[in-house]
Design a protein that fits this description.
The protein has 21 helices and 10 strands. It has 3 domains: 167 residues, Tetratricopeptide repeat domain (Serine Threonine Protein Phosphatase 5, Tetratricopeptide repeat), CATH 1.25.40; 88 residues, Rossmann fold; 176 residues, Glycogen Phosphorylase B (Rossmann fold). By secondary structure, it is of the alpha/beta class.
Length: 463
């Protein structure tokens, strides 16, 4: 039995992106003869399985798990068991993941990384109560273990328990230097009016759009609100009257009385589901572009659906395989072939290669290269969204824009979702006009697209 160092779940199996079949063939040529000669070589089974897993292709996951499982049956090794548990969790084999971790915990019941990964696996499996108990156990053993505090906070929120979630999250905000004590003090003392508050982004473009609503709350309470945003959002947000000063990120900032990250504001305000700011719309498209697209699309009397199927690939590949958000465009073909329906591509950069193989039977419109270029990023997108009857999108900035505009939007989510979408919900407290469709099983986009189509046809017949 071997014991070595452990690392956290999200760091163990390094994703190197999709590899070619040639590289897979190289692995087969290297390991298959070796194992044929020595069928009890535990290390070779493990190395083969891990290398195959690192090709990061769904078709190889089962074989990778089988090889690594064979390795630990031949020779019990804690590090290999941990790797096996991690791989199983990443691809949605939660029962197998927990079994591997349990085998370690039977000998070493207080190993924090193994306890944490067990809790994380339970959390992904939707067993939030069990995950919460494990996180509490970890914190009792090691009170400063940051991942457990963070996961505990967002497990509460996923359950809809915002009060306990944000309270627990305060520990992480202090640890990360994002507690924003000066702003909290102004709010406590009712001395916010007339003060300059600087808000800075955290996360991606969708996160900025999502939490920008809090700038409106601060403005309405009398603050002078300066907001730094990603440069690509400057033109889109230029008409937000509650932003007193809009600053491209990394530009000089004004003197201010307090600052905070946008994503920390729900915790600062201790919001519950009932108190989340829902003054929508809180993004306002350029009226001239709205008029332009109204005239351009007026001749299309079909039911118009804007679609977006692929988030930023680099961001997506960095996620667990069961949390990746990209949807094959081909799954929209049935919708686009429905009589009386027109699809409009709102896709940017990533995923555009899939447009080359769209059948002629699919009524899909694609905008030219000037779209969102001549008038600024997302300006045409927001204007076109206004002219659509429905937006259907993966978890992208487009979905957040549609929600912030108050347009009807159907959000398509993978099996493992971000905390903000809560657990087992088909609606969103953040966006009242949003409906959520979530994979029932890992990697299963087909089922939710079938469900979506059934719902859509029923609604279309009502019109």
């Amino acid at each position: 039995m071997k014991i070595g160092a452990f690392v956290l779940l999200t760091l163990l199996v390094t994703s190197v992106g999709a590899q070619t079949s040639f590289e897979q063939k190289q692995l087969e040529e290297e390991f298959e003869p070796l194992l044929a000669k020595n069928p009890t070589d535990a290390k070779a089974y493990f190395d083969y399985g891990r290398a195959l897993a690192n090709l990061d292709e769904e078709k190889n996951y089962e074989k990778s798990i089988a090889l690594m499982s064979r390795s630990v049956r031949i020779e019990e090794d804690f590090n290999r068991l941990f790797s096996l548990g991690t791989l199983c969790c990443r691809v949605g084999k939660f029962k197998e993941s927990l079994a591997a971790y349990q085998q370690i915990l039977e000998k070493r019941p207080s190993l924090i990384p193994v306890l944490y990964n067990s809790g994380y696996t339970l959390k992904l499996a939707g067993e939030l109560d069990l995950a919460i108990e494990l996180y509490k156990q970890i914190i009792a053993i090691q009170p400063t273990y940051e991942p457990a505090h963070l996961s505990l906070a967002f497990s509460y929120i996923q359950q809809g328990d915002f009060e306990r979630g944000w309270k627990e999250h305060e520990w992480n905000l202090k640890k990360q230097g994002k507690y924003a004590e000066s702003l909290r003090e102004l709010l406590r003392n009712n001395t916010l009016p007339g003060k300059t508050i600087l808000l800075v982004p955290e996360g991606g473009i969708g996160d900025t759009i999502h939490f920008l609503r809090y700038a409106q709350r601060l403005h309405d309470q009398g603050a002078y609100v300066a907001v730094a945003v990603q440069p690509s959002l400057v033109h889109l947000l230029a008409r937000c009257h509650y932003i007193d000063l809009l600053i491209p990120l990394r530009s000089p900032t004004p003197r201010h009385d307090a600052s905070a990250t946008l994503m920390s504001l729900p915790a600062i305000f201790s919001d519950t589901e009932k108190t989340i700011p829902r003054t929508i719309p809180y993004i306002f498209p350029d009226p001239a572009r709205v008029q332009h697209w109204h005239e351009q699309l007026a001749q299309d009397t079909n039911f118009k659906i804007g679609i977006c199927w692929q988030p930023d690939v680099h961001n997506d590949v960095s996620r667990l395989p069961i949390a990746r958000r990209g949807i094959p465009l081909s799954l929209f073909y049935k919708l686009g072939s429905t009589p009386g329906v027109s699809l409009y591509s709102l896709q940017k950069k990533e995923g555009l290669d899939q447009l080359r193989t769209v059948p002629s039977s699919v009524n899909l419109h694609v905008f030219d290269e000037a779209f969102d270029e001549e008038h600024g990023s997302f300006v045409d997108t927001a204007a076109v969204i206004q002219e659509m009857d429905l937006i259907i999108s993966a978890d992208t900035a487009t979905a957040h824009i549609a929600g912030a505009l108050g347009k009807k939007v159907w959000l398509l989510l993978p099996y493992v979702t971000d905390w903000r979408w809560l657990h087992n919900r088909t609606d969103s407290p953040w966006y009242p006009t949003m409906r959520i469709f979530k994979q029932p099983h890992p990697f299963d986009w087909q089922t939710i697209m079938d469900e979506l189509y059934t719902v859509f046809v029923k609604e279309l017949h009502k019109k």
